[in-house]
Amino acid sequence: xxxxxxxxxxxxxxxxxxxxxxxxxxxxxxxxxxxxxxxxxxxxxxxxxxxxxxxxxxxxxxxxxxxxxxxxxxxxxxxxxxxxxxxxxxxxxxxxxxxxxxxxxxxxxxxxxxxxxxxxxxxxxxxxxxxxxxxxxxxxxxxxxxxxxxxxxxxxxxxxxxxxxxxxxxxxxxxxxxxxxxxxxxxxxxxxxxxxxxxxxxxxxxxxxxxxxxxxxxxxxxxxxxxxxxxxxxxxxxxxxxxxxxxxxxxxxxxxxxxxxxxxxxxxxxxxxxxxxxxxxxxxxxxxxxxxxxxxxxxxxxxxxxxxxxxxxxxxxxxxxxxxxxxxxxxxxxxxxxxxxxxxxxxxxxxxxxxxxxxxxxxxxxxxxxxxxxxxxxxxxxxxxxxxxxxxxxxxxxxxxxxxxxxxxxxxxxxxxxxxxxxxxxxxxxxxxxxxxxxxxxxxxxxxxxxxxxx
Length: 455
Fold this sequence. Notes:
Number of helices: 8
Strand order of the largest sheet: 6-5-4-3-7
Largest sheet: 5 strands, antiparallel
Number of strands: 7
Low-confidence stretches: 278-292, 300-368, 370-376
Distance between the termini: 124 Å
Shape: rod-shaped
Radius of gyration: 52 Å
């Protein structure tokens, strides 16, 4: 029963405080009671609210960023798992690819965890202090209303006591002179009223002192904490974004290394695929002509389609021998038009200068390798020189052994070091301009014959 009585008394006291505060706020709004103002503190509260809003937004965006990192990790894992599933066990670099994919996922996991440790947890700690301070600001506002109410109540009692003293002063003095005995009752009542008024005034004064003490204690603490909290935001923002930037820089640097390793593995696989591991899947040479349409690039035995399951050693090389042109120069179907036109031009010139009336004159023979025919220019040609051609179209080299040409450039055709390496429709040569300048035959390379015209 005693506990219930205490609880009921406390509840009644709280209700009375709320009513008193409500009345005081109404009087203040109506202008019938003055309100204690602290401009500096109010500015501190404005900054506090702004800091709370900004911090909450940063926390929300940081959580969204972490969610995006996790989603990117999952997407990256699914994509690379697909690569692992498609990468056949017998392919070059299978173990390396598996290891790179595993390390990539671990790097994503480590990046996410470090963002949580060095940014999100710090963010949560920073914002964790705001609810307590916000509650104390609200409590200060309530205690300020209590202080103002007690101050007004005490002032009201003082004012009432002075009025009563003025009203009773003259009547009492007249009663004492006219009828001292009869006036004693009225005087006693007056003294009782004055005593009660004094007692209430003392109580109000004590209540005012307590209210002022409680208010000032919480007010002093907040006056110190709010400016300090406001200034702390600079260092916190610096640390947070430096952590994120540093972690991102390290993550992308390490991820770049893994991506480079993966690219190297795939490049080796591509090289194996093009150099004989699976010749039936090797790509033909490609070109990018400067303008107009260019003839198709001829296929060589090393770049042609091979029988399924076979390799170049299993192919019938006789079937791949080039057909002889009228001039005795080997040509491919793709290059036959150009070679034939060149032969007709040669035979026309030869017919005009050759004695006799033979209707089928033989085309001029192709000079043998290194033949100079007594010409000083020919004597300075590179070893194995055969003849000159002019590029009719641009040709972009795809492999390191190919010669890149621009339309109009003159190329010195030379023999292959190993005749068995010559592919149908392809010639070996080097640019005449380079030879004349450096007399160096090392930068020679193969090129498609039907991209040129013989000079």
